[in-house]
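Continuing the batch. This is chain 6 of the set; chains 1 through 5 are on the previous pages. Same settings as before, nothing changed between runs. Recording input and output for traceability.
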Amino acid sequence: MSVDDEGRFLVAACWPDRRTAGRTVGDLITGTGRVHIDPLDAAAIVLGPDGRLRIEVDRPGPVTISGILGALIGVLISGPGWLILGGGVVEHLAADAVDAGLPPGPVRNFGGALLPGASAMITVVPAGSVPVLEHELHLLAAAVLVQRLGTPVVQRTGTRAAVRYAAGEVHGDVLAMRTAPAVPPAGPPGPTFTSHG
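Output for chain 6:
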């Protein structure tokens, strides 16, 4: 990522089904959806009915995510009720992001509200893409989190090596396990968790 990172944002969206996040990420990456933005990075995660969290891809074989996505997913699943598997790589990346200034509360709250059977999209986008993407995600009935990523967060996590997951290497490709029920977000009802921090 470039030195001009003040304008980078995490945009996360969650749906109560297992397929919408993967489909939305695919549409963003291929440019086939209604929204035409160029995400800097994107991944979909799925929380199965058994409480197992996996990174979803539309191809067989190992899954590779960037250091910054690993950090953001690590913060997302760092709150109470999660058991992180896989040797602590995402925990280390998450700690780097928080140490560099990412406020963990909004991201942890978003992860804490994920219900079994849900899917979530985690993206890093330039500031100019946020309003259009956020609007489109609301039209798709998603719960949405928007969080600014400051230069120190992007620089520190963006230089980390990619994280690779493959069946058999991380408990059969399971990234984390839900060990307690989801905690609904505090505050007024509604799907938005916006924190432009």
